[in-house]
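Handout, section B. The chain below has 279 residues.
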Amino acid sequence: MLFAKWEVSQYTITFNNNGHGENFSYGNEKFLEIPKNLPTLKEDGYEFLGWYLEENFLNKAVSGTLITSNITLYAKWQELYDVTYITNSHGTTPDSLIDVLSLPNELPELEETGYRFDGWYYDSNFNIPVVLGSNINSNITLYAKWQELYDVIYNINGHGTKPSSTIDVLSLPNELPSLEENDFVFMGWYLDTDFKNPAIAGSDINNNITLYAKWHQLFDITFDVNGHGPQINKRVDLCEIPNELPLLSNDTHKFLGWYLDKECTIEVTLGKDLTSDLT
């Protein structure tokens, strides 16, 4: 009788690191199956995704799987990318993100006095806003967009109480300050010292701006009845001569109207602006 002698078949395992991480070898050691605790590789800028049976990474190597020939295991890698921030000369530059595959779900918020931060963009022309959490496939630079803000300063022209300036805005307030002073009436705010262009509440501005308060001084009118008719009370705090003046009557004289001079040669013009107290 003849007896068959057998030898357990064992095979070599070769590792192909695909150009990243340290080379690894079991030397001449042979195996019946894929061993446990396959080596884990590392390299800056890459994520190691494991060992595969084929160069095109179709089947992942699984520990404990029987092998029937010498085999080569192939390391699969995922390149990682960096995110760099350009603040465009405002705010504090955030630290770059290193070795990532996607943008974070929350990007840094920037601040600077006199400016409003309007978010991050993929391009320096601010045409394409960043999508939070989106995947990236290359190193990427994000650009901060800013909107300059402006101040509104109030020139009260010597009357009333000066309002506080309106700071860091893009438009005039919807309600502009109202001023008061005895013997004057506040006529509103103007964009120019000649009071030709009134300020429009809520309108957009594109630079620092000064608003000028327009005032009209108030005057008193005293009536001299020249010895006929009842005495008439003085009119106070007027901007102009009223459109209707008192009518007088007397049994012996006919009332002919009101005049600016005692000789009654300069007739009063109704509605005319006052520039001084008047008799």
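Note. The CA atoms of residues 223 and 279 lie 6 Å apart. Compare this with the example in section A.
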